[in-house]
Amino acid sequence: MSAPDSEAIALLGGTGDQGLGLALRFAAAGRTVVIGSRKHERALAAAEQVRREVPGAEVEGFENAEATRRAGVVLLSVPFEHTAATVKGLREVLVPGQVVVSMGVPLATAIGDGAARTLGVWQGSCAELVRSLLPAEVPVISAFQNVPAHRLQALPAPVECDVIVSGPKAARQRIMALAELVPGVRGVDGGPLANARYVEAWTALLIGMNVRYRVPKGMGFRLTGLPEAG
Fold first, then answer.
1. Do 54 and 27 form a contact (C-beta atoms < 8 A)?
2. Sign of the dihedral defined by the CA atoms of residues 162, 168, 174, 178, in that order
3. 115, 204 contact by CB (below 8 A)
4. Please, what's the largest Cα pairwise distance for the chain?
5. In the chain, what are the domains?
6. What percent of the chain has pLDDT over 70?
């Protein structure tokens, strides 16, 4: 098998609302996108939808393991309850040089409770759970938890929110640059992966606020007073 395309982006769970939204945005930015799913036919259907909405998009659909083999960056956009099983299925196909991005949040919906609450995770966060399950030579990054799915899908309007990116420094900078391919998004250095536990919890806060303020398209976070890069 040939080496992964370092510029390609795999979205595992790219058939869901947020994964599909990111697939649309990255394809619109001219990047090669690989959509992964547990079911090949669902991945193919999502890829076809991206091609319809982004003419000329370079996008393909595969089962999760094959999608992972083809991309330098692998984003996990799967419900928390499927995270461990999905990650365990990737351990044998990931290679050094790839980066895995955890977008998951341990929402209480995983046990039939409300989405405005989170579950305790022994490792500290969903991202740290992913880290514990993968080879040490494959860096794990936390990002994209708080980007509203409906706004991602609303091409070509800017999304207007910050993405806090946590994890090892070199991979962190790579994913911060990736986030800024989405118009209106700013990648923010969130430091080490342990900080993912705070960012993940914000998702439950936002879900509750979306309900209280009746914002069906979803809110996002903006940090004030942040110095401009350079």
1. yes
2. negative
3. yes
4. 50
5. 5-212 (3.40.50.720)
6. 99
